[in-house]
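Structure, all two chains, one model.
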Amino acid sequence: MSSDDRSGLSCPLPISDYPHILLAHGGGGRLMHNLIEKIFIAAFGEENLESGHDGAVINPGSGRLAFTTDSYVVNPLFFPGGDIGTLAVYGTVNDLAMCGARPKYLSVGFILEEGLPTESLWRIALSMRDAADEAGVKIVTGDTKVVEKGKGHGVYINTAGIGVIDHDLNIGPESVIPGDVIILSGDIGRHGIAIMAEREGLSFETEIKSDCAQVANSVMKLIDGGIEVHCLRDLTRGGLATTMVEISRSSEARIEIKESLIQVREEVRGACEILGFDPLYVANEGRFAAFVREKDAEKALEIMRVKAADHEPCIIGKVTAAAGKMVILKSMIGSERILDMLSGEQLPRIC
Amino acid sequence: MSSDDRSGLSCPLPISDYPHILLAHGGGGRLMHNLIEKIFIAAFGEENLESGHDGAVINPGSGRLAFTTDSYVVNPLFFPGGDIGTLAVYGTVNDLAMCGARPKYLSVGFILEEGLPTESLWRIALSMRDAADEAGVKIVTGDTKVVEKGKGHGVYINTAGIGVIDHDLNIGPESVIPGDVIILSGDIGRHGIAIMAEREGLSFETEIKSDCAQVANSVMKLIDGGIEVHCLRDLTRGGLATTMVEISRSSEARIEIKESLIQVREEVRGACEILGFDPLYVANEGRFAAFVREKDAEKALEIMRVKAADHEPCIIGKVTAAAGKMVILKSMIGSERILDMLSGEQLPRIC
């Protein structure tokens, strides 16, 4: 199938014949083969998918690989700035990048709810194609299941990813040391608030779009640029605060960050006030924190700046040698507050 | 954690505190960390899981890899002969084996429904541990999401797997040639009927247990034994008939199989008659078909025989050079029937 055929926006599975997903689309028979061919192969390209076989054969070369998985259950399926398909690709791509790996291959598992509009599935598949193209990964193998109406919620997606680690850095909490500088890749809180607003039918003066994006290119530029990266973490469930606490615990490091340096857009701040959320705990889908060696911090910041992007990376704090393994937030007026993990759930089904 | 600690059967997450899974167990905060530590790390072992990080770093060596994924939505979660956890490990292990790969690493993604008994999750995690141990794979990375009551069905599991291909065979439908002999690894129809009986509360004189099992060891012995394996396929959704049709279509081969050579247990045959199912289309979870070079057939059969197993491999047919790319079933009385794929759904949510 040529790329021209793939770029068409009309669904190759005749919507008039099958306006909705049926249980039989997951039955392993003719209808399932038809669905795979007309939706998934049409969107992802048969040159990638090992269709008609139980798995893909890949050849990533020798050396270390990163392997990761995430399921996506976001509600609603479509939101300002993306949809569950975008999220399912970028989320797993970003997890690979956080291991310092160059994302290469994705698997995708769909759990469809009987009655899902076929057109929605097609839109999601196209989003996944576009996101995979942008991130430079191939969707090479997949699976489809269908559950009865009322046993799912439209569609749940799992992606697993394989990435190649072609450097000698050991990126993880265990490499964090006093003196490390913490760079935040942009403003926080957009994804969570965009989902919440869409779900609850809230509207603000300025539409809040999810920050959903791949961050692998930024990470690869840091590594290729010779930056001594000690730890990387994307700021998804639990937000910036929970991430910092996790790293502080795993690395037994004391982290000090300054509230005044953390960017939160005016409209996100306003929405958080109305909804009673703390932006430090709101999920992001295109933001990460990089712990880099002090001497590399300015160069890293320069590399992370993306031309014409709608967000700016910023140094927000550092790892100190002071006693007490915890995360300290210095507030705008100079007081100090110890950050803890969220105890339970702030926003369910954010990703 | 020592293996003694792991072998305990009581759930390390105090059931009295959390008898059921809460939405907050998926929120990214303290409760989720607790769940991961007390259930998943306790069952799978912290030496494997890259806990507290976004992915696992693996080093499978150079050469070709197989990569595959499956989601499991079986209803009921527990059935005679296994549960959703057993299935989630063996199913993906078997898909890797069907690529001729030695299964090495698994990822696991849980979609939990709010209200799932914590004890059930613990039992499932233990089943996964035991199945992984038996198949020689490591569960190295995972993810947990929780959806609201009524948006799932207890638990859905996705596993993705990576296996190592350390031989030069090209195993797939494209390698099938006239003369190839088809070996079936045992009797068929047990898994589908076991699920159906459990779901519908049917009872038979002899309890029908699922055939759910890993077949990777058998496959590796074939390859290590120098058998020229042309194609492998497990007989899951759609059963033996759909599998044969798929291979016939992909390989443009004419397949002839003999009904009298296909083993179906008496009780399975009886249940199929009552329920109106054709055993040729019923799903199996521990059976596969091997297409091997004619001269290797007897040796392959010998290798596939497992001591003290409750099933016997058997040659059921061959690929012929006759005209007409289709699957022919020769019946007991000598008549011929063309097999086709199932059109829709025989048994939903069988795996």
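The domain at 173-339 of chain A is CATH 3.90.650.10 (Phosphoribosyl-aminoimidazole Synthetase; Chain A, domain 2).
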